[in-house]
Specification:
3-stranded antiparallel beta sheet; Uridine Diphospho-n-acetylenolpyruvylglucosamine Reductase, domain 1; 11 strands; alpha+beta; Uridine Diphospho-n-acetylenolpyruvylglucosamine Reductase, domain 3; binds flavin-adenine dinucleotide; 224 residues; 5 helices; 3 domains; globular
């Protein structure tokens, strides 16, 4: 339902069909990829508890090579040109290593890995907003073509350019030392502590850079 994605790929790239149980009609249903209405971090299933997904069918290429790499950090780490392919096994190892370096792999020995992953989504903006961000931040934001004349901007960059620092505040809940987009729990924190920090970040980015950040995890029993 989230259309999980990272390092230039989304799960919808390889999904062929989704099977679900319809709680409204008590019938089983099937959806083609198009009918799933996948988008960035979303699908027709997100935000609606009508369908319980029971199975997913994937179509993978019969090759030991992964899909062409279109993510700068990954292509640099693998030492391949943008759009080139590399052994899938090597890509997998490198992606896990890069994620571990950002505290995004659960690790009992790494207190920075206690998070819900990225707390905010990368906002998708038009070229006018992108130019305004560049002026307000006095720096060029990293952005990716999101189609239809829009650009996906790195939320972690926006957070840091709005004045928030990795590792701060140092209390029970704070921004990860390894990744500005992850809010980590260091023990003894409450939901309210997390919400106070998240509100400060959302409001700070809005007032300094004029962009509204939206939360990625689903909040249960509370609101930002
Ligand atoms: C450390 C970390 C790093 C992350 N990095 C990324 C990332 O790089 N990219 C990214 O896209 N996401 C990322 N995430 C978010 C991740 O994709 C979500 O946490 C995950 O998809 C939630 O799915 P779940 O089944 O684990 O959770 P759940 O909480 O079980 O489910 C999430 C939602 O899906 C619903 N749901 C669960 N099962 C079904 C089902 N069978 N049918 C219908 N609805 C169902 C639940 O009701 C709930 O609303 C990260 C998370 C963490 C913790």
């Amino acid at each position: 339902m989230q259309n999980v994605g990272a390092y230039g790929q989304e799960v919808s790239d390889t999904i062929a069909r989704v099977y679900a149980f319809d709680r409204r009609t008590s019938q089983f249903a099937e959806f083609s990829r198009v009918e799933c209405d996948f988008k960035y971090r979303g699908s027709r299933f997100r935000g609606d508890d009508r369908f319980v997904i029971t199975a997913v069918e994937f179509v993978l290429g019969a090759s030991s090579l992964g899909a062409p790499i279109r993510y700068g950090e990954l292509s640099r780490a693998l030492d391949v040109a943008d759009g080139e392919r590399a052994p899938a096994e090597k890509i997998r190892e490198m992606v896990i290593a890069l994620r571990r370096g950002k505290g995004m792999v659960i690790d009992a020995a790494d207190s920075e890995s206690v998070s819900a992953g990225s707390f905010f989504m990368n906002p998708i903006v038009d070229s006018e907003t992108l130019a305004k961000i560049e002026i307000a931040a006095a720096a060029k934001p990293p952005s990716f073509d999101a189609g239809e004349g829009k650009f996906k901007v790195a939320a972690a960059w926006l957070i840091e350019h709005a004045g928030f620092k990795k590792g701060e505040p140092s209390g029970s809940v704070g921004i990860s030392k390894k990744h500005a987009l992850a809010l980590v729990h260091r023990g003894g924190g409450t939901t309210e502590d997390l919400l106070v920090l998240a509100r400060a970040i959302r409001d700070g980015v809005k007032s300094k850079l004029g962009v509204e950040l939206h939360v990625e995890p689903i909040l249960v029993g509370c609101k930002l």
